[in-house]
Amino acid sequence: MTQHTTQPISGQKPGTSGLRKKVKVFQQANYLENFVQSIFNAQPNCAGERLVVGGDGRYFNREAIQTIIAMAVANGFGELIIGQGGILSTPAASCVIRKYPSCGGIVLSASHNPGGPDEDFGIKFNGSNGGPATESMTEVIYQETLSITEYLKADIEPINLDLTGESKRGNTVIRVIDSVADYVELMRSLFDFDAMRALITGGEFKLCFDAMHAVTGPYAKEILVNQLGASQSSVINAEPKEDFGGHHPDPNLVHAAELVDRVKTQGLDFGAASDGDGDRNMVLGRNFYINPCDSLALLAAQSSHIPAYAEGLAGVARSMPTSRALDRVAAKLKLDCYETPTGWKFFGNLMDDARITFCGEESFGTGSSHVREKDGLWAVLCWLNILASSGQTAADLMRAHWAEYGRDYFTRHDYEGVDADAAAEMLNELRGKLETLAGTSFAGIEVAQADEFSYTDPVDATVSKGQGLRILFVNGGRVVLRLSGTGTSGATLRVYYDQFEPASGKLEQNPQEALQPLIRAADALVGITAKTGRNAPDVIT
Ligand code: G16
Asked: Most buried by CB count within 10 Å: which residue of 61, 159, 296, 501?
């Protein structure tokens, strides 16, 4: 029997990046099936077409893939491409969708959220361009979840996900492919592998990449060790695990503590980490943390060192809460610079329309138009290529960048697991005051302007409202508040601070100290401490 009766299940509205819930929620009867069928119902022209399926290997990945295969067969897909072991990093999935023209792909990941039977799972649909479903497609999928009455699922033998090769179920060809090969080939086409190999094997340069027991282990081993000659020990936590070794696969100073410690105690020249599904990156120079906003700006400024970008960039983009360091580079290079809402899906149209080449977010995401996802290893290779070609250290490059452009001090404070109603009320209260704030002062700093960010996509004119409350101060400082769209319990309040310091100013301050006046002003205005009942944020990036 392939037709199964069902009924809508509430709460299947995708967030910033697909549907993320606890594994136990996904294991409920019909939960996964309803959402997958809703994705298929929203793609009426996919019969006979190719679909890519892969995930970050977290707990429930394999079962979910077998379910998706059985449903795709019953829904009449012509061919399925699946990563070996059910593994495809998010950027590799995007690469495969683009390389083997497909009507889209299903990526199973809850990104940097922890994995395991009591932790998180996620599913998202990427379109034929390889990028996350647009806002409008996401809405169509959600509407389908509200009216679903049946799903199609074939009664078939499971596929052996561990063996590459081709088989058939019903009329559908199922191809299990090497998860790494296509992605590596793409990287080889972008970067100067000889120059990076010379740097890495030259004797002086020491690096460490922390795969955090997540999906990038096999990719990093192949590229950094096998192709670029780094030692085996320079890729740590390389074996993907269903529970990420019990850790939180989030590449920041808190969760990538082992990497941070190695870079410090072993005097390494370069350290990097990636997240659960391989799209985020954190980079460290020797005793030197590089903020993702600065990393994006520097990569754009130095992109001519990289063969694929030597001819120049079409334009650049950043999410609204990301610091304005990128804008300064764009102004100097005379490039268009777009400001989008949080979420990689907003960059897709800009890349498809050839308006931008580089884009990124403060949330450790950096990428280019080589795929339609952010790409952790790509960012690491950008840095390595620039280090190899310029002959400078990461810290020297960053310092020279600040000396030229000035420094945009940036930090994000996260308050996790906050009561959702209380958080919404706090933002509502602030929203109600926005129009009256200009000219008033908080903790001694005057507000110049305050609004709620709304974005009109310049390509398809879609309007996305309610994308963050922003307060600009007369001293150039900016505070942005919004609720995360990727959490799975309670609410996470994100407060972003940035303040420009000109090149002639103090460029070597601790960001938390440099931003203290703004942090105090935001607390005086919003009452974050009083309303969340927290004395300090849970995570500071
Ligand atoms: C996702 C999105 C990013 C976004 C991040 C944080 O990243 O793809 O665009 O910046 O979530 O979103 P929020 O602030 O709403 O939690 P990832 O790496 O989790 O897929």
From this structure: 296
